[in-house]
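help with this record:
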Amino acid sequence: MTAMDEQEQRRRRLAAWRGSHRMLARRSTDRTVGEGLAALMAGVGAGSGTGAGSASEVGAGLGSGAGSGFVHDPDDAVDVYGGGVVADLERRVAGLLGTEAAAFFPTGTMAQQVALRCWAGRTGNATVALHPLAHPELHEEGSLGAVSGLRTVHLTSAARMPSAEEVRDHPEPFGTLMLELPLRDAGFVLPTWDELEAVVAAARERDAVVHLDGARLWECTEHFARDLQEIAALADSVYVSFYKSLDGLSGAVLAGPDALVEEARVWRHRYGGQVFQQYPAALSALLGLEKELPRLPSYVAHAKVVASAMAEGFAAAGVPWFRVHPEPPHTHQFQVWLPYGAEVLDEASLRQAEETGVTLFRRWGSGAAGLPPGVSVTEVTVAGAGLEWSAEDVREAVGVFVGLLK
């Protein structure tokens, strides 16, 4: 496909998604620039609501509803290389996670590179143990080695977090154990709380520090039946993202001890992350903490309803083979596997949105690690818009989708 063809397909997808009256999750990336600006401006003030509709709908619908009705004082001066609303966000996240300090970064990739580099210097060991499906291994172009001089080792190739035994018995030393919670490319999977505690204890026995890749940590509380502070307390440092589950514009925070965070601020500057002004991203992150974070438990609960209904729908439609993974989901996100090519599934998904106004699935991919030949996978997210779907709505939409494959 040429670049022009891909652009045309992207315009077609956006038109179909924006025109859909029913979706499982509406994303900020479906908005126009004007709608995004209106959402941010309205979100600084009072009110509450959901969705990514028209500029007027968005403008009327977002906000904090807390205290004064503002997520941050709109008369405050803008940040300049930090401070202001950025410092406010850092304090808020440190409080939520129960850490001594937190530093805002423009990207999670940078935040984690800096965290792991700092720990390498402190432990005297530049080897990081992580999963082969972890984000730095699959989606960062080998950045840990190329930029930070770190070396990675894998404790397991299974599509799950390593066990305590695998951590304990690894034949070579490592300074840091990085755990991605949940492990996205394995299907947003999580260990049990007991398994997580045992893994951390095994790392401590080896004198390794523990860093949590918590890009999606916000939604893990339901699965673990623990609050954010108790989860974060297991680790020496934690990274969290704002644009994924919280629907922020961009940005991340590295949280941990005062001394680590102070060093991380120095490395952030060296890595080019000391950005002149970041108040739009920081405001959108505060808005996500006010608006989306309290709703995540309801999304996680309803994802179980949606996943079960999808499996029932595929079985009723006579699909020869399928997989909903994990079942039940551990968070508000899960995978669906089907034995068709990605282009065929993409076309059926788009046609369903265009012809019925219902977006059930978005993009499909093939060739991912662990996928059998001839099988494609998609990621399903259940957010505010998805709460309107009953199990019967899901089963009916699956039936229509399968019909478009024939």
Observations:
- The two ends are 24 Å apart (CA to CA).
